[in-house]
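Can anyone check this?
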Amino acid sequence: MPQVLVEDYAAEGKSLARVDGKVIFIEGAVPGDRVDVQLGRSKKDWAEGRAIRFHGYSDKRVEPFCSHFGVCGGCQWQMLPYEQQLVYKQKQVRDNLQRIGKLQLAEMPPILGAANTRFYRNKIEYTFGNKRYLKREELGDETISGQQDVAGFHARGLFDKVVDIETCYLQSEPTNEIRKAVKRIRSAKSI
């Protein structure tokens, strides 16, 4: 689908657009982006797809601080300022309570944001494996192998590939150091 204007936020890190009365759920885009969409699933009233080409970016976009953003399944909305993320999260809660729960709600006070937006989680589950997720630019390079020990998170939407994380900003140290030490031990044992 060429030149779709992304109109709103949808759940699970997706945004949405409407084309000829059909709702399109889009991965990799935010409200205000103008994108070409490659559809994956398409039903009568709705479809799912991903942004494959950008014709214009939302003025709300910011540069993600994590080098793994977009590939790793850990964070989904780093391309939006935290305050904007809170607005969309509140909208999602309100919509779910009204649409799904059929509740009539009074005015909701705004969500209180976290003081820290990095290194804030108290629990993380890393994955260790030997099938590294290869980025698009690595796929044609015969010197790079996907068969190597990795430590990180499952690649977004793929449960057999692991993104080898250098630095994760979800939990404070010594988490990154522990993950790297376990990877070194695992690699030494497999030699």
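Reply from J.R.: I decoded it. The chain is about 20% helix and 25% strand.
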